Recover the amino acids of this structure.
């Protein structure tokens, strides 16, 4: 039987072929019984919670390498070019908005606003999502309308409400700058300056945006003092009663899934992309929780002010009880102490990352 | 690698036990946010049953012309069956979990 060829199935099969190797790698890490056996949750007088920690902690081990697609492997020249483009406001129609205007590294690669500000200072419909750890994601934007960083990169540049720069004009502007011509020649020899190479350079840079080690990671590595008791209890709740790991799973604390979690509003989110699927109405992508304490306000529309308010929303099983509300969103009946413990845990997902140097732009 | 004939890749998958089980059952499980097989080879008119073996809700669908279907929200433990009438290569996904993907190839 011959198999119809196509880039999507080709990429998919290729990824699957490497999966067993990754599994072996993770299994080797998991065999470090000395580290795992010293991990405890809560007080020494509560061994049951210690069992919970040992059961779940291996699901949070960080990867050691950053993945990249085969048609756009990492090189230093590509990352450097992508960083320059990322901070360059000439990638907007007004020459005033860069990718970094909204994805500000000083604000955990967001903007700290309830909803983003776009072209002509107009407020957009959704909050700026962070860029941390997207190298491991397979859906971009709050509604997942792009599957790769390369697919995503040109969307905001061209969107009239965001950076408002047509693709042809973007290529024209970049090509007219000698410094860029040299950078592109180094990064993508024998390839033109066009939408493809701009997107690939931006994606290469964005893949390097990885949150650093947080107190939680140090605790996972065996430092019992890295997380106080309240946060350890919060971690246990996170994996059990609060059911957070149904979606916020793995070391990034997200599975990139889409759910209507009961945030009131009229934005149909993923439902616009998949209009025939009831469960996707009012559904949005599950965001990472890495550095979440630095990214208030929360949700796709910035309508929830604090982490305590987020926990409250989940505890009530969502605020908007629509037919599309996820079946996994149910009242949790958390005590006030449990809510505080969850917030204490989430705060310790914050890493102390080195400041990002702003690049000098080419002329 | 990028120029390796796809048929060789599929042939490699076919000889790995547990990867493709097109020969029996026509059942596909969903466990740990993963389909139990990445690829299923069937003939037109055959049925495939999707079992939710997970602890969370799934929503299996395909949005392509000639093979579109939507099994709707599927609670843990539930099963749903779809008949693939037309020939083609269909990407089956979970609406909730974008990393859940598999292909059903329907060919006489």
């Amino acid at each position: 039987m011959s198999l119809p060829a196509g880039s999507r199935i080709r990429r998919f099969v290729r990824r699957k072929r490497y999966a067993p190797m990754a599994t072996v790698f993770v299994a080797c890490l998991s065999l470090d019984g000395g580290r795992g056996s010293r991990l405890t949750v809560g007080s020494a007088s509560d061994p049951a919670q210690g069992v919970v920690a040992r059961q779940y902690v291996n699901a949070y081990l960080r990867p050691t390498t950053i993945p990249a697609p085969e048609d756009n492997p990492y090189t230093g020249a590509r990352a450097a070019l992508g960083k320059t483009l990322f901070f360059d406001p000439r990638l907007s129609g007004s020459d005033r908005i860069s990718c970094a205007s909204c994805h500000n590294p000083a604000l955990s690669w967001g903007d700290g606003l309830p909803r983003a500000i776009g072209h002509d200072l107009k407020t957009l419909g959704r909050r700026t999502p962070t860029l941390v750890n997207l190298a491991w994601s397979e859906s971009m934007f709050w509604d997942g309308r792009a599957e790769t960083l390369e697919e995503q990169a040109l969307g905001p540049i061209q969107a009239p409400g965001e950076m408002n720069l047509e693709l042809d004009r973007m290529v024209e502007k970049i090509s007219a700058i000698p410094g860029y011509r040299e950078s592109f020649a180094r990064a993508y020899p024998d390839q033109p300056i066009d939408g493809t190479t701009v997107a690939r350079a931006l994606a290469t840079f964005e893949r390097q945006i990885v949150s650093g080690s947080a107190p939680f990671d140090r605790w996972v590595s065996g430092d019992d003092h890295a997380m106080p008791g309240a946060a350890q209890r919060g971690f246990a709740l996170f994996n059990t009663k609060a059911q957070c790991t149904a979606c916020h799973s793995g070391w990034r604390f997200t599975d990139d899934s889409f759910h209507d979690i009961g945030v009131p509003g009229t934005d149909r989110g993923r439902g616009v992309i998949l209009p025939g699927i009831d469960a996707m109405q009012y559904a949005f992508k599950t965001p990472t929780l890495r550095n979440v304490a630095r990214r208030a306000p929360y949700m796709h529309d910035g309508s929830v002010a604090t982490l305590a308010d987020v926990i409250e929303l989940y505890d009530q099983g969502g605020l908007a009880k629509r037919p599309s509300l996820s079946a996994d969103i149910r009242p949790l009946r958390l005590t006030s102490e449990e809510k505080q413990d969850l917030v204490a845990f989430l705060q310790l997902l914050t890493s102390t990352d080195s400041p990002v140097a702003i690049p000098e732009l080419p002329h | 690698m990028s120029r390796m004939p796809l048929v060789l890749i599929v042939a490699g998958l076919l000889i790995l036990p547990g990867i493709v089980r097109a020969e029996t059952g026509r059942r596909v499980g969903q466990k740990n946010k993963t389909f139990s097989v990445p690829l299923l080879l069937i003939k037109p008119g055959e049925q495939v049953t999707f079992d939710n073996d997970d602890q969370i809700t799934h929503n299996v669908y395909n949005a392509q012309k000639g093979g579109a279907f939507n099994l709707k929200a599927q609670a843990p433990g539930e099963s749903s069956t779809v008949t693939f009438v037309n020939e083609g290569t269909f990407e089956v996904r979970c609406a909730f979990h974008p990393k859940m993907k598999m292909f059903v190839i329907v060919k006489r």
Chain B is about 10% helix and 40% strand. Chain B has a mean pLDDT of 83. Chain B has one domain: 3-106.
